[in-house]
Amino acid sequence: MEHGNIVVYYGQGKGKTSSALGHAIRCASQGRPVIMIQFMKEKNEDEISFIRRLEPEIRFFRFEKAGGNYEELSEEEKREEYMNIRNGFNFARKVLVTGECGVLILDEFLGLLDNHVIAAEELKSLLEAKAEDTEIIFTGRMMDESIREYADEVYCIQVEK
């Protein structure tokens, strides 16, 4: 894979985050700094603890405070988490503008589009902040078609049996 690609792992199957992490480990082993920002995902302390053991080569961030899935929160909880999610989104933009990493993983980011937390125009603005040699990996269950036009590679992860 060439530097600077935009890669999407989506679908109802398990393994999207694992695929992104495998990719990250390969890039980190080549000396490319990796940042992973997790959005809209149920808090799994075991998974987070494991990812944190990969630091400093793969730095992990999570801005949401709630432990459950965004879709399962009450309206009041969603309003509170909305600001945390926006902070994560703004951090992702900052990371791209400053060139802090060679690979940026936006885990479960596709849910932001699906739940109308960000608009397609904001996605475009985020991608325009990307340096040519920065790679972005998006994961999520549903892929909004607005992201397909920017993607260099799209992987659909589905359960067959």
Give your account of this protein's structure:
With 161 residues, this protein is α/β, with parallel strands linked by helices. The protein has one domain: Rossmann fold (3-Layer(aba) Sandwich). Helices cover 40% and strands 19% of the residues. The chain has a six-stranded parallel beta sheet with strand order 3-2-4-5-1-6, with helices on both faces. The protein starts with 5 loop residues before the first strand and ends in a 5-residue tail after the last strand. The mean pLDDT is 89.
The rough form would be described as globular
- Output the number of helix runs: 6
- The CATH architecture would be 3-Layer(aba) Sandwich
Task: Give the topology string: H per helix, E per strand.
Answer: EHEHEHEHHEHE
Which CATH class is shown? Alpha Beta
Number of E strands:
6
Looking at CATH, the homologous superfamily is P-loop containing nucleotide triphosphate hydrolases
Counting structural domains, the number is 1
> What is the radius of gyration computed over CA atoms, rounded to a whole number of angstroms?
15 Å
Derived from helix and strand composition plus strand pairing, the structural class reads alpha/beta
Helical proportion, percent range: 25-40%
Walk across the major sheet and give the strand order: 3-2-4-5-1-6
Oligomer: single chain
CATH topology tier name: Rossmann fold
Low-pLDDT windows of residues: none
Key attributes of the depicted protein:
161 residues, six-stranded parallel beta sheet, Rossmann fold
